[in-house]
Amino acid sequence: MVLLAALALPPPATTPAPQPAAPARPATPDSAAPMSSEAALGPGKVLWATSADEAIQRAAKENKFVFLEFVRKECGNCKRMDGLLYPAFDFEALLVPMVPVKVDLDSPIGREYADRYNVDEAPAILITTPEGRLVFLMAGFFNQGDFFRNAGTAVEGYRKFAKVVDSQNIGKLTAKEALETGTELYRRSDPAAALPRLKRATSAPGATVPQREDALELLAAVQLDLSQPGSARQTIEQLLATTKDKPRRERAEIFRAQIPLAENRPAEALLLFHKFQKDHPTSPHIQRVNDLVQRLEERTRTQ
């Protein structure tokens, strides 16, 4: 829903080109089963969780990551992926600091993950912290070398980033440091940790105009993600009152028009989108706005 965030931050997923492979039979996917005490060792010679909730609880207790493999019924590439990954020694080594679980992408919990992490196809592998901070995401069918190389690099990179975040005194960060870590935390699907850093970046001594405006733009998106529409509106109005950057203004106006949607006020959103159409007929975002207006007009007619 947040167009501003979509414009500012491309999704972090990496999707290598497909490679042929022999089919293999996967472990039984478990989308949201209740916690079980009868689970057995699975691929990678580790204890696979029987549900995402169980995986999160175990990972938190054992100080590990959560390894989620997204599958779908009748997914041939899911079976081929399992045949590539499961027999490899590298897979066993990768899972040592993780609690793995299979998730049906079409299940309710699977759709929740799909929305949060932009997972739109199976197979896909997602690695997160127990709190949900993104460590690694790879969607689509990929070969063994691509997977292990990218997963290993991502885990190592996350560990370094986490050390930086954990050592920060937010009140003493420079604008540059606060903006960089706040942006990265938001990209990693952790808006709560991004929030205080972005606030710091908007007011840190010595902040440049671009740094301050970048922080305000992203802060508004974070606040809306955290169900704080009133704060998001104040932040985006603050940006609109000061920015002289035309592309940024257009993005901010689009974002402002979306805030009423979060408050279930489509008529108000429609008025703001109509104003954008009138004020910016040649905007590079006009087609997307036109599509939104069409859908909103249809919605308001049926209410």
Could you walk me through the main structural features you see in this protein, from its secondary elements to its overall organization?
It contains 13 helices and six strands. The model is unreliable at 5-39 (pLDDT under 50). The chain folds into two domains: 3-165, Glutaredoxin; 173-302, Tetratricopeptide repeat domain (Serine Threonine Protein Phosphatase 5, Tetratricopeptide repeat). The chain has a four-stranded mixed beta sheet, with helices on both faces. Strands 1-2 form a two-stranded antiparallel sheet. The protein is α+β, with helices and mostly antiparallel strands and 303 residues long.
Question: How many beta strands in the DSSP annotation?
Answer: 6
The overall number of domains is: 2
Radius of gyration: 22 Å
Mean pLDDT: 88
What gross morphology would you assign? globular
Q: And the CATH topology of the largest domain?
A: Glutaredoxin
CATH class of the largest domain: Alpha Beta
Amino- and carboxy-terminal Cα gap: 20 Å
Give a short account of the largest sheet.
4 strands, mixed
CATH superfamily of the largest domain: Glutaredoxin
